[in-house]
Amino acid sequence: MKRYWKRGQSILEYTLVLGAVIAVVVAVLFGSGGIKDKVKAAYDKAGTAVGNTTTDLTGGVFQ
Question: Does residue 27 sit within a domain?
Answer without folding.
Answer: no
